[in-house]
Amino acid sequence: MVFSTDFYSCLPAENESSGCRKTKLSLTKLSFFAYYKCFRDNYQELFKVSNILVLQMNFNYKYSVLLIILLIFFSISSEAFSDDIEWKIYLKSHMQSGPILSENTSAGEEFIVSDSDITGAPSESQDIINALDGIKFIVQQPPVSSRFSIHIILNVQGNMFESAGSIPLFINLSIEAYVDGEKEEDFTFSSHSPMVITIPQVTLSSLLGICNLSRSDNLICVYKTGGSYSNEGIKTYNTTSGIRITAEKPGDIVGGLGEKLGFPSGVKIDTWSRIKLLFR
């Protein structure tokens, strides 16, 4: 059975950047996931017009009841299916004291660390905490529909990040993912939506200064597992505005000079050499 009605949807009208438009909605074509946000974000308004809809729709009474049940379901479950992300930052040496910073963001919204929002950090680590001011984290779309949390553990020792043996590091983080309060050991972000860490130039300069490193074109961030390092699933984009890291999974992420971590800079080949290689 096909039925349709005039309905105010949350889909943007043509040539409009935002707002709702009046559209003809065929309920046989209604996709649960495609229209979930529409119901979730607008269910209060939908309740206001539900009586009007029931009167205007030309279909059996049982379908009217079904529509109202769906409206109630979406309103009740709006929080259960929330795509918010809970971020928590800890100091490794003070895990028992709880997070030094907690914040909730929507999917696709940046979590920006501000040193003025951090509380409970010990005085001996204040310099490294201040140096992190402005670092950004983002996940465009969580890969789960359940309650999702990301814990960021700062592996610091005194006023600097822990080194890897004798290798100085300008960043040393342990990233953990939690779903419904349970830590996920084998977790990966969506291939189309990795976690992105952005270190602006000002923040990067402060972090490099603390570990006595200088600005280099071969600064790199990699995964650390035991005493080995891997760049599989993690990429570093080193630009004049800072560093951007994309990580496909949680784990221990460290940053330092590529040569020290076993990833020397690639050999640059000039244009003429490339042409000559084609004829070999």
Describe the structure.
The protein has helices at 36-56, 61-76, 126-131, 201-210, 258-261, 271-278, and strands spanning 4-9, 21-26, 85-91, 101-105, 111-112, 136-139, 148-154, 156-157, 160-161, 171-179, 182-184, 195-200, 219-225, 228-230, 234-239, 242-247, 251-257. It has 280 residues and is α+β, with helices and mostly antiparallel strands. The protein folds into 2 domains: 4-76, no CATH class; 85-261. The strands form 4 sheets. Strands 3, 4, 7, 10, 11, 13, 14 and 17 form an 8-stranded mixed β-sheet that branches. Strands 5-6-12-16-15 form a 5-stranded antiparallel β-sheet. A two-stranded antiparallel sheet has the order 1-2. Strand 13 (219-225) and strand 14 (228-230) form a beta hairpin. Helix 1 runs antiparallel to helix 2 (61-76). The chain starts with a strand and ends with a helix.
Q: Runs with pLDDT <50, length 5+?
A: 1-50, 74-81, 267-274
Strand residues, percent: 25-35%
The Rg value, from CA coordinates, equals 25 Å
What percentage of residues falls in helices of 4 or more residues? 10-25%
Give the ordered list of helices and strands. EEHHEEEHEEEEEEEHEEEEEHH
- How many runs of DSSP E, i.e. beta strands? 17
Mean pLDDT: 76
> Which structural class do you get from the secondary structure elements?
alpha+beta
Task: Report a brief summary of the structure.
With 280 residues, the protein is an alpha+beta fold. Helices cover 23% and strands 31% of the residues. It contains 6 helices and 17 strands.
